[in-house]
Amino acid sequence: MTGTLYGVGLGPGDPELMTVKAARLISEASVIAYHCARHGRSIARSVAEPYLREGQIEEKLVYPVTTETTDHPGGYEGAIADFYELSAKRLAEHLDAGRDVVLLCEGDPFFYGSYMYMHERLSGRFEAVVVPGVTSVSAASSVFGRPLVQRDEVLTVLPGTLPAPELARRLADTDAAAVLKLGRTFSSVREAFAEAGKLDDAVYVERATWGQQRVEPLADVDPSTVPYFSLALLPSPAYASRQKPAPAPAVPAASGEVVVVGLGPAGPEWLTPEAASELDAAEHVVGYGPYVARVPQKAGQQRHASGNRVEADRAREALSLAASGSRVAVVSSGDPGVFAMASAVLEQVAAGHGAGVRVRIVPGVTAAQAAASRVGAPLGHDYCVLSLSDRLKPWEIIEKRLDAAGAADLVLALYNPASRSRTTQLADACSVLLRHRAPATPVVVARDVGGPEEDIRITTLGELDPSTVDMRCLLIVGSSRTRAEDGVVWTPRSY
Questions:
Q1: pTM reported for the whole predicted model
Q2: Spatial separation of the C-alpha atoms in residues 448 and 455, rounded to whole Å
Q3: Cβ neighbours of residue 343 under 8 Å, at least 6 residues apart?
């Protein structure tokens, strides 16, 4: 009989916050294991000490490095990987001998816990049981005396080791947050809260539930005093608003404006200077989540990310924000006037929303232009831009327009060619175009242009395989005059 490995969560530090099950397992186990630095002291052991008994074997898993450098050939990561392998072998020897092993873990074993590295190495060979513990996030909320989240608010948990711009973006996009792993990362974490416009609402909590716990505004903390066992907390905004005195009656503000901004097809190198200037000046950024995430975070700027199929709701939200006097940027990939948010905003204005709000459109590089640039000049003469999505218009209309464009011998840029739920339209579109075009007509299949998974293929209308095309692709179908030679596709400017 082999022993059982127990990953036991000890909670945030107060031994009385340990679960009954954790206390029982600690007192019953043959082997107690815990991590520690080279000085040999273990916070986990000190929390569990009231429940230890004489005769238990103690296994100290001593980290080879913490913050210092190492001469290990694999660097820090190599040294830590070897340490985990060696630690797993030591615990496996006890388990093979039939001894139960309790591995102590501050907080919860599966919440940024060190136990998980033993679990992934040993759970396939031995029975492994995880005993959850109270997390540092819950403890910090309790000692601060404010709820984390209420009703449908969103809580985001983040490691302080993320780059400050990424932290700022995520903080701006959430209602409440907890940022762990401070210590040396504190300055960049505080910078991220400031960039997100939420520094004044954040609190610093150190060693929650310990005798020497510390709670104070995040903005007031001296970075040189911050230990690893601390976190930054952004609690429930709804609770905070109810604690503040009722504001004086607002004076009606002058209407602001909505600027619909094209981000281009991919990264910042596709963004025009005009678009970058408008984004920098905006007080609010509204858009589909992945597009909002592409906008650099600015201090005090509020972000309103939403799903892909709520264009009308998104437009009304932007107009409502602007009606109160704010300057609002609505973002779209590519150009906002091409199958994007410009028309959605103007439709809501026509429906009576945002009275008095000025709306401007700032263009962007279109996906069709980006794809064409990768292969030459397939759009060098007359061309047609058409979406194959039948979500907003029936397929009968799409087919009629395809037939007309084919008969007119226009180059076609086909947006939204396929998706997980639309798997037949592209094949049908090819059949329609083959009524008018030779099978050898050049076709450009451009996927994720400008992105990390960019893939450009040149094929023909007769050989195009629709199963290789997805929603991230754009297709350019040549006219009878379009040429493809040596990886270059172009359409002559004259007949």
A1: 0.65
A2: 7
A3: 337
At a CB cut-off of 8 Å and minimum separation 6, what does 180 contact?
112, 136, 137, 157, 158, 159, 160, 231
Q: Which two tokens stand for residue 191?
A: 């910078």
Taking 60 as the threshold, does the pLDDT of residue 305 lie above it? yes
* pLDDT higher at 69 or 129: 129
pLDDT value at residue 251: 45
Give backbone dihedrals phi and psi of 286, rounded to 5 degrees, phi first.
Answer: -120, 135
Contact 260, 342 (CB under 8 A): yes
Reduced to 3 states (helix: H, G, I; strand: E, B; else coil), residue 237 is helix
Residues forming beta bridges with residue 178, ordered by sequence position: 157, 233
Residues 193 and 300: their CA atoms lie apart, in Å, by 10
C-beta of residue 469 within 8 angstroms of C-beta of residue 475: yes
As beta bridge partners, residue 328 has 258, 284
pLDDT value of residue 245: 55
Q: Which residue has the tokens 């186990």?
A: 29
Contacts of 167 (CB under 8 A, 6+ apart): 158, 160, 179, 188, 189, 192, 196
User: What are residue 9's DSSP bridge partners?
Assistant: 105
Is residue 321 within 8 Å of residue 315, measured between CB atoms? no
From residue 423, give the alpha-carbon distance in Å to each of 146, 387, 400.
50, 14, 19
C-alpha distances in angstroms, 476 versus 265, 372, 379, 466?
16, 8, 8, 14
- Residue 421 has, within 13 A of its CA and on its CB side, a CA count of 3
Q: φ and ψ at 214, to 5 degrees? A: -140, 130
Asked if 491 and 482 touch (Cβ cutoff 8 Å), the reply is: yes
How confident is the model over 362-400, as pLDDT tens digits?
Answer: 999 999 999 999 999 999 999 999 999 888 889 999 999
Helix or strand (DSSP H, E) at 138: helix 136-144
> How high is the mean pLDDT of the chain?
90
Pairing of strands 214-217, 203-206: antiparallel
Instruction: Kindly tell me if the per-residue pLDDT of 405 is higher than 60.
Output: yes
- CA–CA distance, 405 with 338 (Å, rounded to integer): 18
Q: Given the structure tokens 């397939």, which residue do they identify?
A: 378
Give the pLDDT of residue 454.
Answer: 92
Note whether 342 and 336 are within 8 A (CB).
Answer: yes
Handedness of CA 431, 435, 438, 441 (dihedral sign): negative
Q: What is the pLDDT of residues 440-473, one digit of tens each?
A: 999 999 999 988 889 999 999 999 999 899 888 9
pLDDT (tens digit per residue) in 213-238: 899 999 999 999 998 889 999 998 87
